[in-house]
Amino acid sequence: MRDALMGHPVQDIDVVEIGESIEEVMEPLKPFLRKKFLVNDRFSTVRCVLKSSRVVDFSCAKEIESDLARRDFTINAMAIALNEPYWG
């Protein structure tokens, strides 16, 4: 989020899926995966290396507020909805 707002190339992507299990999130991604591995069992975070070499971290939460609250209180606690426009 920070890099995108500053106009820099995005180096890493973190995706939080609300209300789904990590297995449900991973299923449609299988054709695009080169490899995946568990990063954090407590927060159900899976790091995926896509066939394009892009690295994406996926995690699941019951609500976005609880996910953001567990992060440190810096730029890491910012989020953008991917299912709705955010430009205003």
Helix % is 10-25%
- Tell me the structural class: alpha+beta
Order of helices and strands: HEHEEEH
Q: How much is the average pLDDT? A: 80
Explain what you see.
It is a single chain. The chain is an alpha+beta fold and 88 residues long. The chain has three helices and four strands. The protein has helices spanning 2-5, 22-26, 64-69, and strands spanning 13-18, 33-40, 45-50, 55-61. Strands 1-4-3-2 form a four-stranded mixed sheet. A hairpin with a 4-residue loop joins strand 3 (45-50) and strand 4. The longest helix is centred in the last third of the chain and has 6 residues, at 64-69. It is globular and about 30 Å long. The mean pLDDT is 80.
In short:
By secondary structure, the protein is an alpha+beta fold. It has three helices and four strands.
List keywords for this structure.
alpha+beta; single chain; 4-stranded mixed β-sheet; 88 residues; 3 helices; globular
Question: What secondary-structure arrangement, pairings included, does this model have?
Answer:
Elements: H1 2-5, E1 13-18, H2 22-26, E2 33-40, E3 45-50, E4 55-61, H3 64-69
